[in-house]
Amino acid sequence: MKTLWKNCHIASMAHGKYSIIEDAAIVTSGALIEWIGPQAALAEPEHDNCIDLDGAWVTPGLIDCHTHTVFGGNRSGEFEQRLQGVSYAEIAAAGGGIASTVRATRAASEDELYASAERRLRHLLKDGVTTVEMKSGYGLDLENERKILRVIRRLGNTQPVTVRATCLAAHALPPEYADRADDYINHICNDMLPALAAEGLVDAVDAFCEYLAFSPAQVEQVFITAGQLALPVKLHAEQLSSLGGSSLAARYKALSADHLEFMTEDDAIAMAAAGTVAVLLPGAFYFLRETQLPPMDALRKHGVPIAIATDLNPGTSPGLSLRLMLNMACTLFRMTPEEALAGVTLNAARALGMSATHGSLEVGKVADFVAWNIERPADLAYWLGGDLDKRIVRHGVESSI
Ligand code: NIG
Ligand code: FE
């Protein structure tokens, strides 16, 4: 089945950079892009369908490369506490924070988790997301991490979106292992990761490297196990303090290091050399009212690819719009709208190890794109939320979300 999509302009992200084709057309064949370029250069091809995009701006389908979409309960009560002046770290120390979501997630059935995650996912999809990464990390034991990862797989099998599953068992210390962090890390490495990987539930392995979570030495053990299981790694690093997690991630050729407000220039040099993507999460920065900005100049100077994601989670970023994150990346982190758009397409695909097939519109790549009824690509970073008029195409077929 061939479809000609005509009368559009395209921000294609081809050849690894922001690139524009005005007065363009795309030909898709099945799920793939067969031709893309200026409409005038298109010899009238054979096609089964012709769709007039009416002057829309086409971008690659948006990729949300860092979310914690599957969880029980919510933490709006903690949000109120924080507004009264209690800090995120204080709430965590008092048994709230990640631990309270772990209790709610353990208490929820697989069907309940699926239903609540599906409702949240729908917001992302309506906003133009066609690929999303989701992490476990609110189960913290084999049975409950498995439950979350199974929900993630089920979302990928039933919803109109490509889903990548990341195991974040090393997110926090579960109550059963209080004061025994090394024992929990051993349990992750000896039991949890091998079992979950063998069940085909894991595409990548993540950890939270922070003084209120796990040390670089503990994270390294998780990375070594991931390597033995042939799984790529990612890391929550340098969110609240500088522990060198991002350099550690680079040493293990991590797909990405995420958050990074407290990273140093040396970390940026290491990440650039390793090709590790910097995933910036402006929603968490905003929601925690952080003041330490990620080192944008060092990231740019050393050529670290920068991605942007929602970090959708109940504690630090209940963000249901990836486009809103584009705006925050520009206003809070001083990124340009072009950098921000590359951050949710090209570089987000890199952060998931999917560059060969996703993140840009080029011949042979998957035909996931959005035709936005906007005047300029920068409009995507300009509007604060809302449901922009758009047509979403996934695997070469218009999807009706
Ligand atoms: O990405 N940094 C650690 N994990 C999440 C937040 C987890 C939570 O508070 O529930 C994050 O910000
Ligand atoms: Fe996160």
Mean pLDDT: 97
Q: What is the CA-CA span between the terminal residues? A: 22 Å
What does the largest sheet look like? 8 strands, parallel
Bound heterogens, unique = N-(iminomethyl)-L-glutamic acid, fe (iii) ion
Name the helicity range.
25-40%
Task: Return Rg in Å.
Answer: 21 Å
> Strands of the largest sheet, in order across it?
5-6-7-8-9-10-11-12
Label the structural class: alpha/beta
Please report the total strand number as a whole number.
Answer: 15
Low-confidence stretches: none
| Annotation field: number of helices | 15
Strand content: 15-25%
| SSE arrangement, N to C | EEEEEHHHHEHEHEHEHEHEHHEHHHEHEE
Net shape: globular
What does this molecule look like?
- With 401 residues, the chain is an alpha/beta fold.
- It contains 15 helices and 15 strands.
- The protein has helices at 76-83, 88-93, 98-107, 110-126, 142-158, 181-198, 216-228, 245-251, 265-274, 282-287, 296-301, 322-333, 337-343, 346-351, 379-382; strands at 2-11, 20-29, 32-38, 49-60, 62-64, 129-135, 162-170, 204-209, 234-237, 256-259, 277-280, 306-308, 369-372, 390-394, 397-399.
- The strands form 2 sheets. Strands 5-6-7-8-9-10-11-12 form an 8-stranded parallel sheet. The protein has a 7-stranded mixed sheet with strand order 3-2-1-4-13-14-15, with no helix packed on it.
- Helix 6 runs parallel beside helix 7 (216-228) and helix 8 packs parallel to helix 9 (265-274).
- The protein is globular and about 70 Å long.
- The chain starts with a strand and ends with a strand.
- The model has no long low-confidence stretch (mean pLDDT 97).
- It binds N-(iminomethyl)-L-glutamic acid and fe (iii) ion (FE).
- Residues 97-98, 101, 208, 236, 239, 284, 311, 313-317 line the site of N-(iminomethyl)-L-glutamic acid (NIG).
